[in-house]
Design brief:
346 residues; Beta-galactosidase, Chain A, domain 5; nine-stranded antiparallel β-sheet; five-stranded antiparallel β-sheet; globular; binds alpha-D-galactopyranose
Length: 346
């Protein structure tokens, strides 16, 4: 089935935005918009074949424009936090927007989730999708270099939603693109996600300070409430984690080749989501800052822990942590990142 395009209102800069609807052979439906290259909705059948939208979000473009939770977002230029909103690269200090206390978070005040991307529908045998492209100008949010980025979402007939990123630059710059959907495999607004069973293919994580900046240590998860090496309910030990889960896990794969990073199972619906990625890290965030103030799709009010995020990425604050895998992209090089979400039931 081809990509269906429909109007979705006007962005604050006056650009007309659209919705792009993808449907696969099993009735999985993904809805995207060129505003922020956002995943607007994702309908997936449960074990009885009944579809539900499993991502948190909004009914209208205005919701995404005002959003401060990063629902469904493509996050960039650097996802996650950069300490004190600055870094030094090749001897020069760069100052970024401080939008999370003194730190820089998810690309700054106007990150990649708040700009309008160019969209091009793509169809291949057994898959359909949209390639979004955006030119981030030299100096945008404090980052160096003109960065030409693409984010391509493809929905396959094998039940996979893949997100492939590419970028090139004309000056050395950090880059760490990620996807920020909040999932609830029982359906968006259906309650908290504490009963979801999570497996993470990671035996270490990066402990953080009070501002959620990694200390630099790679700590073993074994014997701690951080251990998800075997499937465990998200809520089983969450009360032992101050503030809830909001941590980067060090994937055992080490990154570089597409490897299984996470599996989530929701017992009442039977839905399973498996995430594979080429990235070395994954941020597990248990929706700790949701507090019922956001009214989302269908008038649902999102309370604490009503969604979880699994953000495939390089480690937070990598520009200031020489021991972490590098996030620096140089002219002549190409940034790539592939993450695949595979849906099934049991
Ligand atoms: C990420 C961060 C969280 C929070 C959310 C957005 O997952 O790690 O601390 O900022 O984004 O609310």
């Amino acid at each position: 089935m081809a990509v269906k395009i429909s109007p979705y209102g006007t962005a604050p800069d006056g650009t007309k935005c659209s919705l792009y609807t993808l449907v696969n052979a099993q009735g999985v439906k993904a809805v995207l918009t060129d505003f922020g290259a956002i995943l607007v909705a994702l309908e997936v059948p449960d074990r009885k074949g009944a579809a539900a939208d499993i991502t948190l979000g909004y009914d209208t473009l205005e919701g995404w424009v005002k959003d401060s939770s990063y629902f469904g977002a493509t996050v960039g230029r650097c996802g996650n936090r950069i300490a004190k909103a600055k870094f030094t690269l090749d001897g020069k200090e760069y100052v970024l927007a401080a939008n999370d206390g003194e730190n820089h978070l998810h690309g700054g005040v106007k990150g990649f989730n708040k700009v309008v991307w160019k969209a091009k529908p793509v169809t291949t045998p057994g898959a359909r999708g949209v390639e979004f492209s955006y030119l981030s100008k030299d100096g945008e949010e404090g980052y160096p270099g003109n960065l030409a980025c693409t984010v391509t979402y493809m929905l396959t007939d094998a039940g996979e939603l893949s997100i492939s990123y590419g970028a090139t630059t004309d000056k050395a710059t950090p880059i760490n693109l990620t996807h920020h959907s909040y999932f609830n495999l029982a359906g968006q607004g259906a309650g908290d996600v504490l009963g979801h069973e999570l497996m993470l293919a990671a035996d270490r994580y990066t402990p953080v300070d009070a501002g959620l900046i990694p200390t630099g240590e790679l700590a073993p998860v074994k014997g701690t409430p951080m251990d998800f090496t075997t499937a465990t309910a998200i809520g089983a030990r969450i009360d032992q984690v101050p503030g809830g889960y909001d941590h980067n896990y060090v994937l055992t794969s080490g990154g570089g080749k597409l490897s299984l990073a996470a599996r989530v199972y929701e017992p009442t619906s039977g839905r399973v989501m498996e995430i594979s990625t080429t990235e070395p890290g994954i941020q597990f965030y248990s929706g700790n800052f949701l507090n019922g103030s956001v009214v989302g799709k269908g008038g649902k009010r999102y309370q604490k822990h009503y969604g979880f995020c699994l953000e495939t990425q390089h480690f937070p604050d990598a520009p200031n942590k020489p021991a972490f895998p590098s996030v620096i992209l140089r002219p002549g090089e190409r940034y790539t990142h592939v993450t695949v979400h595979k849906f099934s039931t049991r």
